[in-house]
């Protein structure tokens, strides 16, 4: 059943220090430090780490396994998830302890649980890209030449993801409302397929799917995420796990940052992983690697304010519906 994004359902990001791990974790030098007592004993014996179908460098590099093994912790990778909303659903069900998502899924999750302290907590930010790894695209021979031409058209994308934010902001730029388009709410792979099969007039896609389609299908990008792309997303955690196992969270963030720093220096390593694990064409993998960012970044009041701005935007555009 669809539910409108009504004011009483908004994400209370202004109370984020009370309700999220932003009040607990602010990455050590340079990234992870914690107000949680470092003497607090861990309670978990297994850590469930989520990954999306777009791939995960920490998983591919087996970066955290050695340190967790030394602590007597078993690592269980859960996934792949099609996108952030599916990952957060699993987190709320207790199947995931830590994962990474864009800025939109946590907002919609909190908005769907009015009056409740959310299970999702923010751990750290991820460095934003320049926006070229995402776009609103049409076929090259489409009569749709600009975003304004999307009025009345079918657009395929993952509802509740950063694809929705890009589309909503792009429509606003040209004076269109959500009610002016037809939404095909699909997972990222389903949305791509609908577009390729001409079941959708346009697709809001991102890498690696976008880069792969650029290689195989003549398309035109009406609007990428430059100037719209926001926070780069977040690593999130399950509240109960984070509160009871701060040191295990710390270990994960430290190792994720090391992997990110190395990938910034040698993005070709990530490209090779995409070729080996996702069977991408090498040229596609290189494009994905060149358009991606890798490092984490400390959560600051400015980032919190940006996330509040995203939540406020959705509140104002409450004709968008969440599933």
What Rg do the Cα atoms give?
19 Å
Query: What is the makeup of the main sheet?
Result: 5 strands, mixed
Strand order of the largest sheet: 8-7-9-6-10
- Contiguous low-pLDDT stretches (5 residues minimum) are 1-39
Indicate the mean pLDDT: 84
Structural class: alpha/beta
Number of strands: 13
Give a description of the structure.
The protein is globular, with a radius of gyration of 19 Å. Helices cover 38% and strands 19% of the residues. By secondary structure, it is of the alpha/beta class. Helix 6 links the parallel strand 7 and strand 8 (182-185). It has 13 helices and 13 strands. Helix 4 crosses helix 5 (104-111), helix 10 crosses helix 11 and helix 11 crosses helix 12 (282-291). 46% of the residues are buried. The chain starts with a strand and ends with a strand.
Q: What are its keywords?
A:
single chain; 323 residues; alpha/beta; five-stranded mixed beta sheet; four-stranded antiparallel beta sheet; 13 helices; disordered N terminus
Tell me the layout of helices and strands.
Elements: E1 3-4, H1 16-19, E2 46-52, H2 57-60, H3 65-70, E3 74-81, H4 84-92, E4 98-101, H5 104-111, E5 120-126, E6 134-139, E7 154-157, H6 162-173, E8 182-185, H7 188-196, E9 202-206, H8 209-216, E10 219-224, E11 234-238, H9 239-244, H10 246-265, H11 267-278, H12 282-291, E12 296-297, H13 301-316, E13 321-322
Parallel strand pairs: 2-3, 7-8, 7-9
Antiparallel strand pairs: 1-13, 4-11, 5-11, 5-12, 6-9, 6-10
């Amino acid at each position: 059943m669809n539910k409108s994004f009504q004011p009483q359902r908004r994400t209370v990001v202004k109370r984020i220090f009370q309700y999220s791990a932003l009040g607990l974790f602010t990455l050590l030098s340079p990234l992870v430090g914690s107000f949680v007592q470092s003497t607090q004993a861990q309670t978990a014996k297994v850590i469930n780490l989520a990954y999306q179908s777009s791939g995960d460098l920490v998983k591919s590099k087996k970066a955290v396994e050695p340190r967790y093994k030394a602590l007597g912790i078993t690592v269980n990778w859960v996934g792949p998830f099609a996108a952030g909303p599916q990952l957060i659903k699993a987190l709320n069900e207790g199947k995931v302890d830590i994962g990474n998502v864009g800025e939109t899924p946590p907002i919609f999750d909190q908005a769907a649980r009015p009056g409740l302290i959310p299970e999702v907590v923010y751990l750290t930010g991820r460095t934003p890209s320049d926006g070229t790894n995402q776009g609103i695209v049409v076929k090259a021979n489409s009569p749709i030449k600009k975003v304004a031409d999307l009025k009345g058209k079918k657009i395929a994308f993952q509802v509740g993801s950063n694809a929705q934010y890009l589309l909503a902001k792009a429509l606003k730029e040209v004076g269109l409302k959500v009610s002016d388009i037809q939404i095909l709410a699909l997972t990222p792979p389903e949305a791509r397929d609908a577009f390729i099969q001409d079941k959708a007039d346009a697709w809001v896609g991102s890498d690696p799917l976008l880069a792969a389609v650029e290689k195989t299908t003549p398309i035109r990008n009406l609007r990428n995420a430059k100037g719209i792309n926001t926070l780069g997303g977040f690593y999130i955690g399950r509240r109960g796990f984070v509160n009871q196992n701060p040191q295990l969270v710390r270990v994960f963030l430290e190792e994720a940052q090391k992997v990110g720093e190395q990938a910034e220096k040698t993005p070709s390593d990530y490209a090779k992983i995409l070729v080996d694990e996702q069977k991408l064409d090498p040229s596609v993998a290189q494009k994905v690697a060149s358009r991606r960012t890798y490092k984490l970044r400390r959560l600051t009041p400015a980032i919190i304010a940006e996330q509040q701005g995203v939540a406020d935007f959705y509140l104002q555009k409450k004709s968008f519906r969440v599933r």
